[in-house]
Design a protein that fits this description.
By secondary structure, this protein is an alpha/beta fold. The protein has 5 helices and 4 strands. The chain is globular, with a radius of gyration of 16 Å.
């Protein structure tokens, strides 16, 4: 689901030059659990080195992964290593916002979300703006289509709108990648 679903052959995003690392939380845990973010930081480091990636990475996720994308930035010893973060319907803890100063974010969430309260994202966006995040964009939909999974997910699918129907998102990502290209190391 979410972002990865739009990478299949023939999809609009399939032609973009990128390395995608798509970890999932262990069953029965979440991104706030001790060690989860550190494991993903190491995984990203290995991917960047293995594929000799010249740009800073982006992090994104939806629902629990939306929270995880925010947590990966604020729990990173060097949050400025991230070109940006795109949390989708994940909320987050505003108390950590000062740790993300200097990072660019684009949040997506729907007011109709019955799984994660949109007010959680509202508060986080405001906290990041006050803490000095480099840029904070927020697309707050009135309604999002159901993800057609179960009734308990009513209004939670902001990711299809974000990934499939927001072309400005890809221009934003490209502009940040160009601005924040990491220096290439030669061996």
């Amino acid at each position: 689901g979410g972002f990865v679903r739009h990478l299949h052959p023939g999809a609009a995003l399939a032609a973009l030059p990128m390395v995608v690392v798509a970890p999932l939380c262990d069953r029965g845990t979440e991104w706030a659990a001790p060690g989860m973010c550190e494991r993903v930081h190491r995984l990203v480091d290995v991917a960047l080195e293995t594929f000799n990636v010249a740009s800073k990475p982006f992090v994104t996720g939806n629902s629990m992964g939306g929270l995880g994308s925010y947590m990966l930035v604020v729990r990173d010893p060097d949050p400025l290593r991230w070109a940006g973060a795109i949390p989708v319907c994940g909320g987050g803890h505003p108390v950590f916002a000062k740790l993300a100063a200097g990072v660019s974010f684009w949040f997506f969430h729907a007011a109709s979300d019955k799984v994660v309260a949109v007010e959680d994202t509202d508060k986080l966006v405001e906290a990041l703006r006050q803490a000095g995040a480099a840029e904070v964009r927020y697309t707050r939909y009135a309604e999002a289509p159901d993800p057609h999974v179960e009734d308990y997910c009513e209004g939670h699918n902001a990711w299809d709108e974000a990934w499939a129907r927001t072309p400005a998102l890809w221009k934003w990502v490209e502009s940040l990648v160009q601005k924040k290209r990491a220096p290439r190391t030669s061996e």
